[in-house]
What we know:
The model is unreliable at 185-193 (pLDDT under 50). The protein is an alpha+beta fold. A hairpin with a 7-residue loop joins strand 1 and strand 2 (63-68). It is 20% helix and 37% strand. It starts with a helix and ends in a 5-residue tail after the last helix. Strands 1-2-3-10-5-8 form a six-stranded antiparallel beta sheet, with helices on one face. The chain has a four-stranded antiparallel beta sheet with strand order 4-9-6-7, with no helix packed on it. Strands 11-12 form a two-stranded antiparallel sheet. The protein has one domain: Jelly Rolls (Sandwich), CATH 2.60.120.10. It has helices at 5-23, 28-34, 36-43, 186-189, and strands at residues 53-55, 63-68, 73-79, 84-88, 94-100, 103-110, 122-130, 135-138, 144-149, 154-160, 168-172, 177-181. The chain has four helices and twelve strands, in the order αααββββββββββββα. Bound molecules: fe (ii) ion. Residues 88, 90, 94, 145, 194 line the site of fe (ii) ion.
Amino acid sequence: MPGSSSELTIRECAFEIIRLCEALALDNAALARALQAPLQRIVSLPDLLSLGVKRQGNHIDNSKYLYYDGQLVISLDEFPKGKRIPPHDHGVWEAIAMYRGSVEHTVYERIDDGSREGYAELAVVDDRRLGPGDVCVLIQPAEIHSFAALEEGTHSLTVVGGHYAELRHYFNPADKTCVVRRPRPVSQARVAAN
Ligand SMILES: [Fe+2]
């Protein structure tokens, strides 16, 4: 049975993202730039809120899969207004593409060498308000972010280029500390944490 036109567009964009990942595997900056167009195409679709399949999120309750193939994940997530998600890493690239509402979003690069347990020094590389159509790609060397929704009904695409790390770092930049956490049981960790 053919999908709706929006579902087909999402699928086409997913295939384009996969091609870009293969072609630009060695050039993170180029990949981050190239991902903008297919992600903006998806968030221009008017009916995303009516699509998708319920997903178990980590930081949030309302999350739906729009695309999943065991590697690439595209989900549509509702960010609760005012809930600040602390700085965290992913172990894989992740992109945010805003659909509705807005977020205060900060991207960090870790500048210490990670050799001291519990110590981490972060530098802010991007700090801005993201609104509908804005895309931010978190990729090495800057794949740490924190955010908080500024409005009710804030929805964003979260796109992940593979499996999340099973152990994730959560940072306190003011104290220059970090803790390692396992967001979910190993069996779920690959897809269950933003
Ligand atoms: Fe994240």
